Amino acid sequence: MLKSLRKQSPMNHKALRLLTAAAATAVAGTSLLLSAPSATAANAPYADCPGWALCLYQDGGGAGSKVILTPPPTGSPSQMVYLIGKHFLNGQAADNQTSSWLNNSQCGIEFYDDPNGDLHPSLIDSAPSWNWGLKHDYSYGTPQAYLNDRVSSLRFYNC
Ligand SMILES: [Ca+2]
């Protein structure tokens, strides 16, 4: 056994040198990735929500990706929004994933737990109309943490 190892040792050293070089390259690549600031970390809380929109954020405190919802025009009848089939800007499904929101619309909003909140009343949260910039945060440890990842549909009203 020892004899055969010694015989192969020049080959093993070469392989080891190649592996070491590959590992060094991999480590260098990793540290480059780690040192680059991520887009998420650079975003301010509740960032980039248009001045007329309701934005649902994937993470608490207005962090993470978001869904930008356009309210109906002023004076319109109320309008339901169903989150099944909708996605955050990062492509992930939005149903039962809202952890905070910002209402820049002038509409009032009712948030429902049920996917069809108009058919199965399950009101869990609301925003009064004419209250631009209202935020609710469902982060762990906040008073509304029990609402985290529950919103499945909502209704714009009094727009
Ligand atoms: Ca739900």
TrEMBL record:
Keywords: Plasmid, Signal
Signal peptide: 1-41
One Pfam family cited in the UniProt record for this chain: Inhibitor_I36
Domain of life: Bacteria
Name of this protein: Peptidase inhibitor family I36 protein
